[in-house]
Design goal:
The chain is mainly beta. The protein contains six helices and 54 strands. Among the domains are: 206 residues, Alpha-Beta Horseshoe (Leucine-rich repeat, LRR (right-handed beta-alpha superhelix)); 33 residues. The termini are far apart. This is Receptor like protein 9.
Length: 767
């Protein structure tokens, strides 16, 4: 539901005790609830509420209040200290600023207090909460990076916490008050400045500790306790400065770990075989380290519960899963950017795989035929050394969302169809595919990338697809005309037909293509459709509201996709959000002829237009001044004539405007973005003038009549005819002068000529 909340619908519910408005799209100020004296629970989380919330201070019987994930700003109202019966207060993920509100010291009944993810700054003293004897959960963090915890070494608070979260508080050491806690279950000190040795004493002191989050700090040495820890289930040490080998006993010390994240460090050497003793582990992230060697067999056999395995950006080598594994539950395997050389049969038994990323390795040979037996949703094998033809069964799985086989040596014909799920992304570029493009290949795709292959024939009359966003056919040997069927791809954002052998004129109907005019939806990174169900809920401190778990690990992970396109004189990759703002048309390096259609000026949201290296003639359309979002226009190496329209100087976002090597004339616009362009954008046009090329327009005798589009054609015709007549007269005169001079000299040729004349006269007299 959206809009302001309709309070008139609830005006008669005077005995209301619980009101849950969460996870909607309500906007505006907090509803006036002053007459709801019996209200005990109010959940307004995950909306777009803003403005004043002081009206809530009148709800004296309120016990649980959740205002998280809204757009509240300013300082938190001081009047909330009158809500003395509050047991749950969550104001996290808003824009509250200033210092942490001192009123919290008066909330004697509070058990759950979440102030995280706001804009608080200054010093926070634990004295504010030291006397809150019932407090069990305390969460504090700030996006401003200006919040600091005041050091109080002698503080002994009255509370005994189960959950402590102090993120982005500029901590350099573990706060001393934590040592006075006896039964911590969750400790989150991530995004701070902790240094030195990993505080393994936390594992020894708290026998019930289940979650320890220390990511994004500056810890340098990983030491583990000698005794086993049977309770810790989630440990995140990612993005620190560890650079040594992992302790050999890591699997023995943490046998019941379920979620282990060691990514973005500098861990070296091979994986300890003790990883195989983590029988319950479901999520393991070792990416972005310096691990090397092959995967230990004890690990491949022992971790039977593993669901997600991330090995990317390391130096693992050999075959991936050289022997049979015991990964019967593995759904996500991401091992890109390593040194793997082959796909072994050990992978064949992992039939649960839905996501496989082996891109940017050194894989050789062909894709095994048994790959067709998997029900992949995402398969990435790009930038390897794979070759041969593709198994036909690979393209018939309805589960596919992304298939990336680019940057290999695959050959043969393209599949006649691709059965994807909910419109898919298909990357077959930079291979050696040959033959024609099947017209049905486009049917179920959002992105079709066939660049840089050996495809031939004409662009087919594609089947109707109103949802395709990107069609990339650059760098093949396609011939024939640009089919008008492409004008029916109404949702297209990027159309790249460059570097082919296309002929004929540019279809005028291309203005029917949206290039951003009709945006039905945005393209975001796709989340993995697989989750881990943890039956063991962490305790929450609420009797009325549904509060989040103390810690919910994110197992989804956003899968990024990219589209490459040439713009602003360079080749860029557009991923996720940036793709939502890119609209481009590239027809360069073909054999196109005729005029540039004025209808292209209707593509008002297009950002890149490249028509260079063709044989286009005529004038630059005046309608190009309507391309208000354009950043790059390349019309170089054509046969264009006439002036550059002066109105193009109004294009505020234009960075590239290249018209070199044409037959343009007249003055170059000097205002707007044209003042930043140098002469390289205009060379090869002898009749152009202006400050950009240091050629004064006063020296050009034809400037005045070349400025007008309507008269330029006639006047150029007049100039050509005058030159023709003068050339004819000069030739006639030179011929007669040469003949007369020839007669003035005594020579055998002269006598032959006069003898011929005498004979002709005698013959004439006889007649």
């Amino acid at each position: 539901m959206e809009g302001t909340f309709p309070m008139k619908e609830l005006i008669n519910l005077r005995n209301l005790e619980l009101l849950d408005l969460s996870k909607n799209q309500f906007v505006g100020p907090v509803p006036d609830l002053a007459n709801f004296h019996n209200l005990q629970g109010l959940d307004m989380s995950d909306n777009k509420f803003s403005g004043s919330n002081k009206g809530l201070c009148q709800l004296k019987n309120l016990r649980e209040l959740d205002l998280s994930q809204n757009k509240f700003t300013g300082q938190f109202p001081q009047c909330f200290d009158s809500l003395t019966q509050l047991q749950v207060l969550d104001i996290s993920s808003n824009n509250f600023n200033g210092t942490v509100p001192s009123l919290i010291r008066n909330l004697d009944s509070v058990e759950y207090l979440a102030l995280s993810d706001n804009e608080f700054k200054g010093f926070f003293s634990l004295e504010l909460i030291a006397n809150l004897s019932k407090l069990k959960v305390f969460k504090l963090s700030s996006r401003s990076n200006l919040l600091r915890l005041k050091k109080l070494s002698s503080l002994q608070p009255k509370f005994q916490l189960s959950v402590i979260e102090l993120q982005n508080c500029n901590l350099e050491n573990v706060p001393s008050f934590i040592q006075h806690q006896k039964d911590l279950h969750v400790i989150n000190l991530s995004n701070n400045k902790l240094t030195g040795v990993f505080p393994y004493w936390l594992l020894e002191k708290y026998p019930n500790l289940r979650v320890l989050l220390l990511q994004n700090n500056s810890l340098t040495m990983l030491e583990l306790p000698r005794l086993l820890n049977h309770t810790l289930q989630i440990l995140d040490l990612s993005a620190n400065n560890f650079d040594q080998r992992l302790p050999e006993n890591i699997g023995k010390v943490l046998p019941n770990i379920r979620h282990l994240n060691l990514s973005n460090n500098g861990f070296q050497w091979i994986l300890p075989s003790s990883f195989g003793e983590m029988k319950d582990i479901k999520f393991l992230d070792l990416s972005h380290n310096n691990f090397s060697g092959s995967l230990p067999m004890k690990f491949l056999i022992g971790c039977s519960s593993l669901h997600t395995l991330k090995l990317s950006y390391n130096k693992f080598f050999g075959q991936i899963f050289p022997k049979q594994t015991n990964f019967g539950s593995l759904v996500v395997l991401i091992a890109n950017n390593n040194l793997f050389t082959g796909i072994a049969d050990g992978l064949r038994n992992v039939q649960s795989l839905g996501v496989l990323d082996l891109s940017n390795n050194y894989l050789q040979g062909v894709i095994p035929s048994w790959f067709g037996g998997f029900f992949f949703a995402y398969l990435f094998l790009s930038n390897n050394l794979l070759e041969g033809t593709l198994p036909s069964t690979l393209f018939s799985k309805p589960t596919f969302k992304i298939l990336d086989l680019s940057g290999n040596k695959f050959s043969g014909n393209l599949p006649s169809h691709f059965t994807g799920m909910d419109m898919s992304l298909l990357y077959l570029n930079d291979n050696e595919f040959s033959g024609t493009i099947p017209s049905t290949l486009i049917k179920d795709v959002l992105v079709l990338d066939l660049r840089n292959n050996k495809l031939s024939g004409t662009i087919p009359h594609f089947v109707k697809n109103e949802f395709i966003l990107s069609l990339l056919l650059r760098g093949n040997t396609l011939t024939g005309h640009i089919p008008t069927d492409l004008c029916g791809l109404r949702s297209i954002r990027i159309l790249d037909l460059a570097n082919n052998r296309l002929k004929g004129s540019i279809p005028t109907c291309l203005n029917n293509v949206s290039f951003g005019r009709r945006l039905n939806y945005e393209v975001n990174g796709d989340k993995l459709p697989f989750e881990i169900n943890d039956d063991e809920e962490f305790a929450v401190y609420s009797r009325l509201l549904v509060l989040p778990r103390q810690y919910s690990p994110d197992y989804t992970g956003v899968l990024m996709f990219n589209v490459e396109f040439a713009s602003k004189s360079r080749y860029d990759s557009y991923t996720q959000e940036s793709f939502n703002f890119m609209f481009g048309l590239d027809l360069s390096s073909n054999e196109l002829s005729g005029d540039i259609p004025k209808e292209l000026g209707d593509l008002q949201r297009i950002r890149a237009l490249n028509l260079s290296h063709n044989s286009l003639s005529g004038l630059i359309p005046q309608s190009f001044s309507n391309l208000t979002d354009i950043e790059s226009i390349d019309l170089s190496f054509n046969l264009l004539r006439g002036p550059i329209p002066q109105d193009l100087s109004k294009l505020d976002y234009m960075v590239v405007f290249n018209v070199s090597y044409n037959n343009l004339s007249g003055s170059i616009p000097s205002h707007g973005k044209f003042s930043t362009l140098d002469e390289t954008n205009f060379i090869g046009n002898l009749l152009l003038c202006g400050s950009a090329i240091n050629r004064s327009c006063d020296d050009n005798s034809t400037t005045e009549f070349l400025e007008s589009d309507d008269q330029s054609g006639d006047e150029e015709t007049t100039i050509d005819m005058e030159i023709f007549y003068w050339s004819l007269a000069a030739t006639y005169g030179v011929t007669w002068i040469t003949f007369i001079v020839f007669l003035c000299f005594d020579s055998p040729w002269r006598r032959v000529w006069f003898h011929f004349v005498d004979a002709f006269i005698s013959l004439f007299k006889c007649v």
